[in-house]
Amino acid sequence: MVFLDKIKQPEFWSNFxxxxxxxxxxxxxxxxxxxxxxxxxxxxxEAINQANFADGKWKNFFSFKIIFSVxxxxxxxxxxMK
Length: 82
What we know:
Shape: elongated
Helix content: over 70%
Radius of gyration: 16 Å
Order of helices and strands: HHHH
Largest sheet: none
Number of helices: 4
Structural class: mainly alpha
Number of strands: 0
Strand content: under 5%
Protein backbone atom coordinates (compact mmCIF):
# COMPACT_ATOMS: atom_id res chain seq x y z
CA MET A 1 0.00 0.00 0.00
CA VAL A 2 1.20 3.52 -0.79
CA PHE A 3 2.17 5.86 2.06
CA LEU A 4 -0.57 8.37 1.19
CA ASP A 5 -3.18 5.62 1.38
CA LYS A 6 -1.84 4.47 4.73
CA ILE A 7 -2.05 7.89 6.36
CA LYS A 8 -5.75 8.09 5.52
CA GLN A 9 -6.47 5.16 7.81
CA PRO A 10 -7.30 5.89 11.47
CA GLU A 11 -5.28 2.83 12.48
CA PHE A 12 -2.15 4.48 11.06
CA TRP A 13 -2.48 7.47 13.39
CA SER A 14 -3.22 5.25 16.36
CA ASN A 15 -0.07 3.24 15.68
CA PHE A 16 1.87 6.44 14.99
CA UNK A 17 1.00 7.85 18.40
CA UNK A 18 1.96 4.55 20.05
CA UNK A 19 5.43 4.91 18.52
CA UNK A 20 6.09 8.66 18.44
CA UNK A 21 4.99 9.67 21.95
CA UNK A 22 7.06 7.11 23.89
CA UNK A 23 10.00 7.79 21.58
CA UNK A 24 9.72 11.53 22.28
CA UNK A 25 9.66 10.91 26.04
CA UNK A 26 12.62 8.54 25.79
CA UNK A 27 14.70 10.97 23.69
CA UNK A 28 13.89 13.83 26.05
CA UNK A 29 14.91 11.89 29.15
CA UNK A 30 18.12 10.63 27.54
CA UNK A 31 18.98 14.14 26.40
CA UNK A 32 18.48 15.55 29.88
CA UNK A 33 20.56 12.77 31.40
CA UNK A 34 23.41 13.29 28.96
CA UNK A 35 23.48 17.08 29.25
CA UNK A 36 22.72 17.48 32.95
CA UNK A 37 23.61 14.20 34.67
CA UNK A 38 25.29 15.73 37.71
CA UNK A 39 22.64 18.43 38.17
CA UNK A 40 19.83 15.88 38.05
CA UNK A 41 21.33 13.63 40.67
CA UNK A 42 22.38 16.50 42.92
CA UNK A 43 18.85 17.93 42.76
CA UNK A 44 19.95 21.23 41.20
CA UNK A 45 16.85 21.74 39.09
CA GLU A 46 17.43 25.49 38.75
CA ALA A 47 20.63 24.79 36.82
CA ILE A 48 18.75 22.36 34.57
CA ASN A 49 16.10 25.01 33.98
CA GLN A 50 18.69 27.68 33.16
CA ALA A 51 20.64 25.38 30.84
CA ASN A 52 17.70 23.99 28.87
CA PHE A 53 14.45 25.89 29.32
CA ALA A 54 14.91 29.51 30.47
CA ASP A 55 14.88 32.49 28.12
CA GLY A 56 13.25 30.65 25.24
CA LYS A 57 15.77 27.80 25.20
CA TRP A 58 12.88 25.36 25.56
CA LYS A 59 11.97 26.00 21.91
CA ASN A 60 15.33 24.71 20.70
CA PHE A 61 15.34 21.91 23.26
CA PHE A 62 11.98 20.49 22.23
CA SER A 63 11.82 21.41 18.52
CA PHE A 64 14.48 18.94 17.37
CA LYS A 65 13.04 16.19 19.54
CA ILE A 66 9.50 16.74 18.26
CA ILE A 67 10.59 16.79 14.62
CA PHE A 68 12.81 13.73 15.09
CA SER A 69 10.01 11.85 16.89
CA VAL A 70 7.47 12.68 14.18
CA UNK A 71 9.75 11.45 11.40
CA UNK A 72 10.70 8.33 13.37
CA UNK A 73 7.03 7.62 14.11
CA UNK A 74 5.99 8.09 10.48
CA UNK A 75 8.85 5.94 9.19
CA UNK A 76 8.31 3.12 11.69
CA UNK A 77 4.54 3.06 11.34
CA UNK A 78 4.75 3.14 7.55
CA UNK A 79 7.24 0.30 7.56
CA UNK A 80 5.25 -1.90 9.97
CA MET A 81 1.78 -1.44 8.43
CA LYS A 82 0.77 -3.62 5.54
